[in-house]
Design goal:
The protein is mainly α. Helix content is about 45%, strand content about 10%. The protein has one domain (about 5-150): Orthogonal Bundle (Arc Repressor Mutant, subunit A). It contains 7 helices and 2 strands, in the order H-H-H-H-H-E-E-H-H. It has a two-stranded antiparallel sheet with strand order 1-2. A hairpin with a 2-residue loop joins strand 1 (about 70-75) and strand 2 (about 75-85). It is globular, with a radius of gyration of 19 Å.
């Protein structure tokens, strides 16, 4: 197989399209931002985001369907439903931070407010980066897509997780 055909074959198995199907829409990311910042009730999301009720209802249902959020009775008021991030949803935090940082750099052109800080040091978080197994940051020219079968034995990621 020619190298470019090989790359196309490997990329066809990439999970990015599935991830975008689950969350790749503007309102979903804004709902997630709200959830990461403590919003939990339909009315909180609606008033904070200014999103139409039908769109919010649809997006919340989709995030629940994909097990990114879960619906649960609110312990403070059993008549209300709270939307909480699942472990799967919490794992989206680095992606949201990276997208925000990209927006600050390339769209807004300046840091946005509020500033995301480490609770302990009260200092802003570092820029998100792709890192090698040893922790050093990697640029695009230092990356390559490989089929799992091409990984060295015992390498992280050589087995499906």
């Amino acid at each position: 197989m020619v190298r470019s055909e090989h790359k196309v074959a490997v990329l066809s198995e990439c999970a990015l399209p599935l991830a975008l199907e689950a969350v790749g829409e503007r309102w979903s990311f804004l709902i997630l931002r709200g959830a990461f910042n403590g919003l939990a009730h339909f009315e909180e999301f609606q008033s904070t985001l200014g999103i139409a009720r039908n769109i919010l209802s649809n997006r919340l249902a989709r995030l629940v369907e994909h097990e990114i959020l879960q619906r649960e009775p609110d312990p403070a008021d059993r008549r209300k439903v709270a939307y909480r991030l699942t472990a799967k949803g919490r794992d989206l935090l680095p992606a949201l931070i990276a997208l925000r940082q990209w927006g600050e750099r390339w769209v807004a052109g300046c840091p946005s407010n509020p500033v995301l800080v480490d609770k302990q040091s009260r200092r802003p978080v570092q820029a998100m980066a792709v890192r090698a197994a040893d922790g050093r940051p990697l640029g695009l020219s230092e990356l390559e897509w490989l089929d799992q079968s091409e990984l060295p034995p015992g390498a992280p990621g050589d087995q499906p997780s």
